[in-house]
Amino acid sequence: xxxxxxPADASAEDLMIAVEQLVRYVxxxxxxxxxxxxxxxxxxxxxxxxxxxxxxxxRAENVSQPNMTQLVTRMERAGLVRRTADRTDGRxxxxxxxxxxxxxxxxxxxxxAEALRGLLEELTEPEQQAVRTAxxxxxxxxxxxxxxx
Length: 149
Known about the structure:
Blueprint: H1 12-29, H2 37-49, E1 52-53, H3 54-61, H4 65-77, E2 81-86, E3 89-97, H5 99-121, H6 125-147
């Protein structure tokens, strides 16, 4: 379903459809490592934010701890992540990306960036500038919203 260009007076629903299409397109452009969406998301979080406890990772990814445990086990077998002792709590275990996992993360990010770059090149210069202004502004709004209690 391609609703076409989003009009200047687009509703929030129209914008949501456009964002969903963009995210889906960019996500599907990343093929390095042959990861599932869940594995790609978890590896991306570990690549951006560093080692995390399994419970924190499950919460951040909005999945159950048993599901995250299974995912981490599969990723561990693939050599993408490893479990290490938490130095601040001897009972705790951290999940961290391996060098291989970080390389897959970087490759996938580069593939997504190239897909977005290709889309931007299809826009007019004023449209490109609007995107370069709007997307960082929306990202800041998300961060501000998440930082509120």
